[in-house]
Amino acid sequence: MVEELKKLTGRVQSVEGGKGMNYEDLCIQPDVELPEGYKPPKFEMFDGTGDPKVHLRMYCDKLVGISKNEKICMKLFMRSLTWDAFSWYISQNPKKWVSWVSMASYFMDRFWFNTKNAPGIFYILNLKKKPTETFYEYATRWRPEAAKVRPTIEEEQMNKFFARAQDLQYYERLMVIENHKFSDIIKLGERIEEGIKNEIVTNFEALQATNKALQLGGISKKKEVGAVIVAQGPKSPLTYQTPPPTN
Length: 247
Known about the structure:
Blueprint: H1 2-15, H2 23-26, H3 52-62, H4 70-76, H5 83-90, H6 100-111, H7 113-116, H8 121-125, H9 135-147, H10 155-164, H11 168-174, H12 182-197, H13 204-215, E1 228-232, E2 237-241
Antiparallel strand pairs: 1-2
């Protein structure tokens, strides 16, 4: 009778949220309070893809002033996770993490496979712009993929690989500023894109198709194609097209 009463009491507590639903049961480091006036920084978010060690480094760099308090480090870590990483975290029993090293080790073990399956240089060199994408959309899609390459490549190298991944009309212009910031390369790429649309910059793909057709006798040569001139200034190249010669 006593045993049955205990089971019944346990069921009631579970239904009412009294068992396993207390703050102490749900919260990691429930006895830890943040210092008065402390505002947690805005963390880089980890979604379950990418290098987990890189994320741990970025996370720790944000913990200025409290990095020696590992309980606070553990308490705030969830704020840097999203999507699959967040789902993994909340499915764990936080009581098994007795220290920061313990929690970080579990995190590394869970997401280490990302580095084993990381893409290489050949992958990003062949990551081309889709016909439906703007240059900005393509560049912002390419950049995170390049960050996954292992071994890690430096920013300047990344810019060079980005330029080499482009079609000719982009490559010949972007390569002259490949030592600039990636944001500068995107801006120039957008200018080139606009120039192609307005027929100020030669579309080399169309030009090659025209030349091939001419060689095969498929079309008549009605006019000369203007020359493309690239003048490199001290900060950025200026690209324009000379008009066709007049008779």
